[in-house]
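name: query_chain
kind: protein
chains: 1
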Amino acid sequence: MEFLPLFFQLKDKPCLIVGGGHIALRKASLLRKAGAVVNVVGLDILPALEALVLESGGGLFREPYSQEYLDRKFLVIAATDNETINKQVSKDAHDRHIPVNVVDNPKLCSVILPAIIDRSPVIVAVSSGGKSPVLTRLLRTKIESIVPAAYGQLAHLVSGFREKVKARFSSIDERRFFWERIFQGPASEMIFAGNEGAAKKLISEELGKDDSGTSNGEVYLVGAGPGDPDLLTFKALRLMQKADVVLYDRLVSESIIDLTRRDAERIYVGKARSNHSVPQSDINGLLVKLAKEGKRVLRLKGGDPFIFGRGGEEIEELAEFGIPFQVVPGVTAASGCAAYAGIPLTHRDYAQSVRFVTGHLKDGSINLPWHDLVNEQQTLVFYMGLVGLPVICEQLIAHGREASTPIALVQQGTTLNQRVYTGTLESMAEKIAAHNVKAPTLLIIGSVVQLREKLSWFEEFDEENQDPL
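structure:
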């Protein structure tokens, strides 16, 4: 992050605006809305800005700027059209360690003013770090459309119950469970319908229940997809933001983990080939243990949990101990990586079937039914096939697949680091050996690979030259 989002308490605090035009008026109106005492210095000050300053109890100074005006100020905004003055204001404020905003010049700012969705006391701020104000305003509009004004009324209502809830429930978890039930239940719907009296009654009734603050443990087995966060399902995102504990794999990207609840406990249980940092049996046991403690546990797995993800083994354990669970499918690597590589897995002219194969078996071998994998009208997709690539190519040729059969290796598919290498069964192993290929990877074998040149659409990144390929 270039800027850390903060909410600034400015009620009755003296602030300074340098400049007296329309931009200064907009900034002054925003400060006044936050309760600030607005002071303005400038040679030409709009009448409306003058009236706002006087209403706030601030000072109005029709004279050139000087650094003495910064004395005892909590925030400074430079809103002139004179770059020299703006730079001087910024320097003076930085020297005095006073937060300063220079309109339309992020490099001179120590703070920036975001686009605001005001549902007081609920405030949502959106910023692009000053790089694209138009995009920020568009995002604000989208958020405003899905955050009803009644959220502010709801926040005011529940604030009156906070002390009662603290007295009723001793632990933070119990209080959180209670409030989540309120915010996701009929009490909130009553507020949105304009019936505050009914909402108060429902909250009071919930407080009187013996089990209001308790929650049964549950496990959410969620497929995170191949890497691009935009491929998550709505259900996956909802459960990710609900869970108390997150167990995540090596293949789950950081950008997806960041979508989980900020205060959730995160536990890494990743496994790489021949390096299982947490054995599968321990993962299974941990899921059961956490759920028995009443936790809502998110098991976040790359791709789809039921396609080479060992999700079946995990829910077998949960079912044996009677732990409630939900399974959310994810976009599996085969379909996601193939789509982003511009390779259709089936095509009427090239392949009428597709087969998913693991690149190594439980015992670490690649002892596969090779005779079943040499049909020319079949696309093969090998998961975890990077280490075994030479053997895979060799065995397919030995069992009857043409040496000229096209093959693609997709590295870190659907992400900004995606790279696609193409060749043939005969040439691919040697070609890949010459590159620093990074897991995770996926192999796609079959005549459909030749369509990539025509259908490729996703811009890939050249890590060496820092340019799109």
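note: Residues 463-469 have pLDDT under 50 and may be disordered.
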